[in-house]
Amino acid sequence: MPEYRSAADRKTILVGKTICRLAAVAPWAWPLIGKSVGRFFDRAAAGWDERTAAGSAGHLATLAAGLDSLEVKPERVLDLGCGTGAGTLFLAREFPRAGIRGVDLSESMISQAQAKIGLDPEGRVSFRVGDASKLPFGEDSFDLVTQVNMPVFFGEIARVLRPGGGLIIATSLGEQTPFSTPERLIRRKLASHGFGELNSGAAGEGTWVSAKLEGSG
Ligand SMILES: C[S@@+](CC[C@H](N)C(=O)[O-])C[C@H]1O[C@@H](n2cnc3c(N)ncnc32)[C@H](O)[C@@H]1O
After folding, report:
1. How many domains does the chain have?
2. Ligand 1: which atom is nearest the Cα of residue 147?
3. For position 2, what pLDDT does the model report?
4. Does residue 4 sit within a domain?
5. What is the CATH number of the domain that holds 107?
6. Which residues, including other chains, have CB under 8 Å from residue 184's CB and lie 6 or more apart?
7. Does any ligand 1 atom lie closer than 6 A to the CB of residue 37?
8. Is 170 close to ligand 1, i.e. is its CB under 6 Å away?
9. Are 108 and 75 in contact (CB under 8 A)?
10. N or C: which end of the chain has fewer CB within 10 A?
11. 127-154 confidence digits (pLDDT tens)
12. What confidence tens digit (pLDDT) does each residue in 30-62 have?
């Protein structure tokens, strides 16, 4: 399998980063662009894994490194912007007893993710269409929230994560990732949403930030 590579040109990177900044600083404005973003990824879903090497060691390296930093044993995990489910299924392998939910705006991405698990009689892993800016889950629903190459909605993550729960925000290509948020901005927003124990690093070609929501739960 080829290494995780982006065919993204400079314009795509610029547009992606602008969208991520908007999500971070003005999440209330997301309804203005969310539908277009979903349509974009509906079109991009066919052949996604082959084009991006989603699921390869390179693609998952930052998620794995973020997990090492957190040292958590979650029972309920949420993977935001799960795309075709590569990261979600990695989490399911890492935590064989946990319930894992993958959520994505794009129906086509979710169909591809769903096809990878078929009918899961235990319902341990499931995928659904949903918007990370307005999650269909109650407060304190998860012990761990992850996301790879995805805009960050800090308020919603803090709402659905239980106190003491862990968060990983990862990119596969660092600065070259279109859907990436500057680490300085991530750190500032995490602090203002009640997160502590912030760590960050690089792995493969990407970067990760991990944190825990303060409070013991
Ligand atoms: C660059 S792709 C990354 C997919 C996957 N995490 C990966 O690394 O292969 C970004 C994904 O985030 C999804 N997405 C973007 N905004 C979202 C939102 N507000 N809520 C849920 N998913 C979203 C897109 O539909 C797309 O599938």
Report:
1. 1
2. 6
3. 34
4. no
5. 3.40.50.150
6. none
7. yes
8. no
9. no
10. C
11. 999 999 999 999 999 999 999 999 999 9
12. 999 999 999 999 999 999 999 999 999 999 999
